[in-house]
Design brief:
Length: 224
């Protein structure tokens, strides 16, 4: 009986050793992600670009939150005749439409007193006016596809998270987010009316004659 018990004990010890060897092997072997898996990064991470900022080109003195709410209402009212969930092809300055979708020209801007909301093609923005920390990207498309509902919600998000922060005792900030179904090529910007950013967007000569926006809505600037 003792020999039988001793044999069972030895088998138990041997099994335990085998388990420990397997555990050690698993944790000691470097993990190599399978190509194409979700765990394999697609190159280096892009630099972090803040949604809100105090760039002197975007905000020189102060943005009033209530003015931004008025600019958002102007956006909703002026674009309300278009179906919010309908997809549009947003055109870079001077570009021609490339799809069966209805085209809309850029830039598009809606402003009320101290606050301006603008829809811009990222690739058309002069590098000095890009969000701080960002450089031009080759992946930005010439034209972009998006719905007006998505853009209006994006503008409201920036106003809520950047401008209205000042209501809590801080300093209201300018801000932006990227949208677009092809390559995040549309920028939704909120900045101070009268700032350098505002002057750049309003400079018609920088964007070309409205007549170059073929088959597009050329009424691009609305004033409350």
């Amino acid at each position: 009986m003792w020999e039988m018990s001793n044999s069972k004990y030895q088998r138990w010890i041997l099994a335990l050793v085998q388990v420990l060897v397997i555990i050690h092997t698993v944790f000691a072997t470097p993990f190599t992600p399978v190509p194409g898996s979700l765990l394999l990064p697609n190159g280096p991470n892009p630099p972090r670009v803040d949604k809100c900022n105090r760039s002197s080109l975007w905000i020189s003195t102060k943005i009033q939150h209530e003015d931004c709410l008025a600019a958002l209402e102007l956006f909703r009212r002026q674009e309300g005749q278009k179906r919010g969930t309908q997809r549009f092809e947003f055109l870079s300055p001077g570009a021609r439409k490339t799809s069966p979708l209805l085209p809309l020209a850029t830039p598009r801007m809606y402003f009320a007193k101290t606050c301006s909301v603008a829809i811009l093609m990222m690739r058309a923005i002069p590098p000095a006016f890009l969000p701080p920390g960002m450089t031009p990207q080759s992946s930005w498309p010439m034209n972009e596809v998006e719905t007006l509902d998505v853009l209006k919600n994006a503008a409201a998000e920036v106003v809520r998270e950047c401008v209205s922060w000042g209501k809590a005792g801080g300093f209201p900030l300018a801000g932006w987010v990227a949208r677009g179904q092809l390559g995040k090529g549309l920028g939704v910007f909120v900045f101070q009316t009268g700032s350098e950013m505002y002057k750049m967007v309003r400079n018609e000569r920088a964007w070309g004659d409205p007549g170059t926006f073929l088959d597009a809505d050329v009424n691009r600037t609305f004033v409350a």
